């Protein structure tokens, strides 16, 4: 028998008043609201609709529209502009945000916004004011002929308010109706157009965009790797300028970007370097815009570190793309276990095979980004660098920061710091973020303090940028840089002691063997700094014979090959396992058996090979001895 529950109607709120009947509070509040709406002209309630951001231009306007491009590094904005120009778009690259951009952003923006908002919004408004006041264009001409293309997001911070900030600042500056197109961190490029869009989002568009992004990453990586060790000041910048021009011209004219990178490799190879000079390596992490911009937005942090005698280990936009792919893969894996119909925004259609289809697509996207990066890196001479394994970063961070929390760099800041310490990837980790950045501040000032306690010896510096606090910013970085220099020098001396060599011996050996002093040479990773890596590499060569080096190299190749084989068998891609599970249960069982038996089989095979070799080698030695005696 089902029992019905009847809810009482809400009681009317009243207030007894002396000498009067009770006062109906709800009626009085409704009357007050109606009176205020009439006084303010709000009788008709309307929902606010954004009518400036994400407005597209039509195909008939394409030849008249100029895309303003900005928001990434100098190299990437420059190359992306060239790629879009080849597709028939008119493009102009905005300058790197400076102090004037900050001033304009604060003048026309809301109060208490974060640093990137003021700089990016102010940089756009400043460019439009220049067109109006110095170039003589009217506001209507600017609105009709220019469109701004940049990155956007909807995270749990003020980054999601960029749309509103652009709208307010542009209107207050006299550019009401100017169009802003935002690339979203999730969801692609928002569109709102009744006519056919002038921005054709086809494979050619996205391939051109990726070429500019990845080529810019590679060139930036080479520049920051060479500049701290250059013998002739300015030689790296000179090569960088020509390399960027080579890639720009190739993208602009539809020629091979790989050939342009290969030609640029010859330019970088001519830079003379001395890696025996100790330079502590500083890994830069933090809020995406603050750690990648190269201007006043982070007080030119990368160049400041180099001036202080450090090597800057930067983060790449390609890694941010991989993080976006990882987020989707992680969420797909979680959604695959839902017991009811998935109706969310990121829902998976197609049932169990829809899950497999998405997993395969995301796996392919991850591999495509990595393959493209390595192809470009090898062409340009950026050897020895591999994009981070996002699963490994998540695993390192998971005990301290929930992988499901989003916003900014998410768990990556925590994972990167731990990996820098555990795997000795850098002497110091520097987290840079805008003043008041909620996701990054919660990590750097909260979780990271626990990490530094759990991992003694960690040199971690968290700094904030506000646009007008350069002295305090530089002072804090210098304080931690002193510790990093001490750690790098101690590491360098320990490497000399471990190898039993002197700096002079290493320099002499490098002179006799120029390939170790080549600009594009990357010593194998052994320590936090590049200088110590070189000591370990060359020290082994100085203190060993050719035969010993051959044996050591053979063992290392065999060890790496065995590890790769085991990884391929045991660590099969999640996608492959999911596909087997959804297609045939027997295949899953066979896969499980293979995962359990493969290590043992591999070990037995290795032991059998060693045993066979032990039996055969004595006979071969006797045969050789007999041949020598007979001859």
Structure description:
It is a single chain. The protein is an alpha/beta fold and 631 residues long. The chain has helices at residues 25-40, 74-86, 99-108, 115-133, 139-145, 162-172, 203-226, 235-252, 257-269, 288-292, 301-307, 317-335, 351-380, 390-397, 412-422, 438-454, 470-499, 503-512, 530-542, 546-570, 574-583, 585-630, and strands at 14-15, 23-24, 66-69, 90-93, 146-152, 179-184, 188-189, 281-286, 311-313, 428-434, 460-465. The strands form 3 sheets. Strands 4-3-5-6-7 form a 5-stranded mixed beta sheet, with helices on both faces. The chain has a 4-stranded parallel beta sheet with strand order 9-8-10-11, sandwiched between helices. Helix 2 (74-86) runs parallel beside helix 8 (235-252).
Entry keywords:
631 residues; alpha/beta; five-stranded mixed sheet; 22 helices; disordered N terminus
Helicity, in percent? 55-70%
Helix/strand/pairing category: alpha/beta
* Distance from first to last alpha carbon: 108 Å
- Order of strands side by side in the largest beta sheet? 4-3-5-6-7
Number of helices: 22
Low-confidence stretches: 1-9, 185-195, 570-590
**Strand proportion:** 5-15%
DSSP strand count: 11
Radius of gyration: 30 Å
What profile does the largest beta sheet have?
Answer: 5 strands, mixed
Q: What is the averaged pLDDT score?
A: 81
Which descriptor suits the 3D outline? globular
